Amino acid sequence: MRSTVLQLAPLVLALACTPALAKKKAPAKEDEPPSQEQVQSDISTRQISIQSNFTGAEILIFGSIDFSDSRTPSEGTYDVIAVVRGPNDPIVLRKKERVAGIWVNGPSKTYDNVPGFYAVLSSRPVRAIASNETLKGLGIGLSDLDFGRHISDNPEEQAFRSAMIRLKEQKKLFQENDDGVKFIGRSLFRANVLLPVNVPTGRYTVDVYLFRDGTAASKSQGSLEVTKAGLEAVIYSLAFKHSFIYGLLGVFIAVTMGLAGWYAFRRD
Amino acid sequence: MFQIYLPIAEISVNLVVMLGLGAAVGFLSGMFGVGGGFLLTPLLMLSGIPPAIAVATGANQIVASSVSGTMAHWRRGNVDLRMGVVLIAGGVVGALVGVFLLKILREAGQAGLMISLTYVCFLGVIGALMLWESVNAMLRARAGKAVSARRSGQHNWIHGLPFKMRFPTSRLYISTIPPLVIGSVVGLLAAFLGVGGGFIMVPAMIYLLRMQTNIVIGTAIFQIIFVTAIVTVLHATFNYTLDIVLAFPLVIGGVIGGQFGVRAGQKLRAEQLRALLALMVLGVAIRVLIDLVVRPSDLYSIVPLAGS
User: In chain B, what are the domain boundaries?
Assistant: First the structure.
């Protein structure tokens, strides 16, 4: 409970500050009332543990629009886009080539900053919600990520880049869902995200943007932690931190099982 | 149902399938008196386990099946301990070379290819030779001629080599160089392919060292325990490729399957067994070759940056 209160504190602060900002902008526009809508959101699970029975996890992002101007659910004044981002990692993408009749790993490209998981969920297609520049500025959408590599118009670079996105999408590590955010009534919304079995561990950020008339009117941030837990965590840390002992343990188990098998089935 | 998450391979596999895979390979290895690594490692690779992890975990599984096998041979006095120690000494050197070779190839992104190519070459040649030999033996047996025995007492070039040692159990007085070389080749193969190397060692010891077949098999399986154990520890320490959670069902399935395999094998004739084994070896070689020559469904692949 205490941590929930702490997490909400920045939100409260933001609530207090934004009307001031909105007022500054207001005179530029005509005599529209200053928009005061705020988005608040949270995630169903803040901690996901990968244990031996882990086959993936589903998280629910939910929230509401406070001070909403819309009176009916179908009015379509607001759009919500949720972006879930896993920890960044460098990866190497290799392309196979045919050499003497055999398919061999040929040229490769390194990407320094690839999110281990990246999902964009929205209430409508993102291109219909905001302009490309706005989306690019906020880092929304796969086509606007640079992956830590300068991508020129070089067709080979483009081919590698789209292959990488395609492979990540096949593994469900990259997701774009135009229809992923559902409104319930006037101001509540929810979005389900499926984390596949091969999700990387680490800290994930969840950014929820509230759009009105093509601009981000409000933003709410949250995070969740994916960690290996239980026996999986013990084995994993043993394997990487005490790898020699881990190797001996593997041999010990095998020798014991081998002896047990021989003893159980011996005939003399 | 029964899905189990592998902490090192970082994928989820079916526990029942892995137990079954271990049992099937164990059954065949018990039946033919081979380690079964040459079947297990490619099968693991075909079921989606990364090649380097398949090799290290395959080696770990062979430790268990060779312990079971050695116990049976030990009681019959078929293990030449001194020969075993010389072979192991060579094996350690070969294993070290193999583990570091694999580490370098992995960083260059060519580990899977080189493992597959080596499998195709070795299994292709050995399968073809075994098939040729066993078919000839079957034809001779049908023609009513006696199957030729080993030409004992004959000397060959091996006997001209220095550093001779006496091996009382095998009743041999030969140079230690050939067993050291055989041991190191087997160690290299164990580290690189995740195989025990019995399919190389047994013919080499019979034809080059002129040892008796039963002692050859007992000694080979004895030294395989140590070589695969060393390979397992080296891979775990330097390549972080051992997955104990994967090894566990494979070991259990393998130990149980192996015992039933031994019984099934006693019902078949030796030449028939060798012909069947040869066909299986060739089958695996062809299967691995097909994966190399057929255009892959996706030309691109993602690998995490080495060392991260």
Answer: 13-291
